[in-house]
Amino acid sequence: MLGVVSGVSGLAVSELVSGLLHQRVSPIIAVGEGIISLTPGAVVEFFISLVGQNDKPLLIGLTLAGLLLLSAGVGILALRSVLAAQGVFVVMGFVVVLAVAARLPSSTTTYIPAVVGTVVALAVLAVLTPRAVSSLPPAPAEEATSWQDHEGSRRQFLMLSGAVALAALVAGGTGRVLASSRAAVEAARDRLRLPLREVPTPEGAQLDVKGIEPWLTTQDRFYRIDTALSVPQILPEDWELRIHGLVDNELTLTYRDLLDRGLDDAWITLCCVSNQVGGDLISNAHWSGVLIADVLADAGVHDDADAILSTSEDGWTCGTPLAAVTDGRNALLAMAMNGEPLTPEHGFPVRMVVPGLYGYVSATKWVVDLEVTRFSDFSAFWTDRGWSEEGPIKTQSRIDVPKSGADVVAGEVVVAGIAWAQHTGIAKVEISVDGGEWAEALLAADPSIDTWRQWSYRWAATTGEHEISVRATDKGGYVQTGELADVVPDGATGWHTVTVNVTPAG
Ligand SMILES: Nc1nc2c(c(=O)[nH]1)N[C@H]1C(S)=C(S)[C@@H](COP(=O)(O)O)O[C@H]1N2
Ligand SMILES: [Mo]
Predict the structure, then answer these.
(1) Which pLDDT score is estimated for 25?
(2) 365 CA distance to ligand 1 centroid (A)?
(3) Among 216, 188, 212, which residue's Cα sits nearest to residue 202?
C-alpha cells in the first residue's frame, strides 16, 4: 500500500504535467515505447501475433503492472530503510528520464514531468512511511496499551493513503484527458485539406548573411505569447465564430463557412508589445484566411461603432480599432500559416492577424467571438492591466550580426539585421559606429509594407572595442527615435546597440 500509493502518485502527477505541457508522449508511454525498442524484433512480432490490435494498451498495462510491483517492493523496503527506498525511486525516475530522452527532442521542459513525478513519489513516501511504521502491530515486548495507539495510527495511515490515491487518480485522469483531446485535435488537423500552397520567400527578401534572422519564420521558431496555461484544443467541426453587437445581422460562422468564402493570403510580420529593443518577440509568416472586413460587411456594421472586441475560447479578450480591420489592409481571420493549418499553439483552428498592430490588440488566437462595439464601452485583458488601448507597432530595427560581445577580425565586417514598421514600410536603415555619422545600409526587397525588411552594411572595422547602433526610417518619413522608452504601456523605443571587439587581422 505504502509503496504503491507513492509510486502511483508520482506517475499520476507526471501524466498531469505532461498533459499540461502537451508532450507527444507521457513518461509511461515513453517507458512502454522504450521497452518495445529494446525488445528484439522477433519477440515484438510474436507478441503482436498473440494479442493483435491490443498490443499498445496491453503493453501500457504491463508497464503499469511492472511499476506497481516495483513500487510495492519499494514500500516494503521503506519500512526498513526510507533512504534505501527513496534511492530505488530515484533510480526508477532516472530510467524514466532516459526513456523520455529517447522519445522526445530535448528542450527546457522535456524532463519536467518525469522529474516532478519522481519528486512527488519521494515526498509521498517520506510523509507516509512514518505513519505506516507506527501503524504496524507492536512488537510483543511493548506494552499492551500501545494496541490502541496502533489502531488509531492504522486508521490515520489508511485515510491519508486513500486521500493521496484519490488525488492521484484525479490528477492522472486529467492528464490523460488533456493528452487525448490533443491527439483528437492533431488527427483532425492532419485530415484537413485546405486549398493552400506553400509560398516561397519572395525574391530578394532573404539576404545571404550568416546569422541573420531568416525572413520567413517557420512554425516551430515563431515566437509564442499567450496567457493559456494549457493550449485550447478545438476541433474544426466544433468551432464557431459569433459576430454580434452594433450590427444589422448577427452572424454565426462555422469553419466550413469560412472555407466556402475562399481564402485570401498575405505576408504579415507579427510583433509583441513586450518586445524589448533588440528582442526576439517578432516573427514573419505567410497567412491564409478570410478578410475580417468581408465578414463584417455581411453583418452590417453600425456607424457609431469604433472597435472590435474579440474573445478567445479560453476567455482572453482584445480590443481592435474598427478602422484597422476595415481600411483595406489584410486583416484576417487566419486559418493557416506558411501553407499549413495553424498549429494549436498559434491559434488553431482560427485566429486574427492584423498588419500594423501589436498582438495584444489584434491577434486573438482561438477566436470564437467578435463584438462590434465602442472603446468607451469595454476594456480588454491587457488594457485592464495598464497597457495602452490602441497599439500601433512602433518603427524599430535590430542588429542580428555581429552579436553583442562578439570578437571580429579587423577589415570588412558585415553588419546585418531586420527593421520593421508594419503597414507603413521601411524606407531606410542607417548604422552609426561609436556615435559617429549615420551611414546608409543596403536594404533587401520588401514584398509588402506589412513585413519586416532585412538590411546589411559593410563596415570597415578597425582594431579595438566599438559600439554599433542602428536606426530605421519608415515610408511615412518618421526617423526612429533614440530616446529610450519601456515596453509598458505601448512598446519600447531606442536604438539597438551592440558592442564588438575587433582584433587585429593576421
Ligand atoms: N487567445 C489569446 N490570443 C492571444 C494572446 C493570448 O494571450 N490569448 N496573446 C496575444 C499576444 S500579446 C501576442 S503578441 C500574440 C502572439 O501570437 P503568437 O503566440 O502566435 O506569436 O497573440 C495574441 N493573441
Ligand atoms: Mo504580445
Answers:
(1) 78
(2) 6
(3) 216
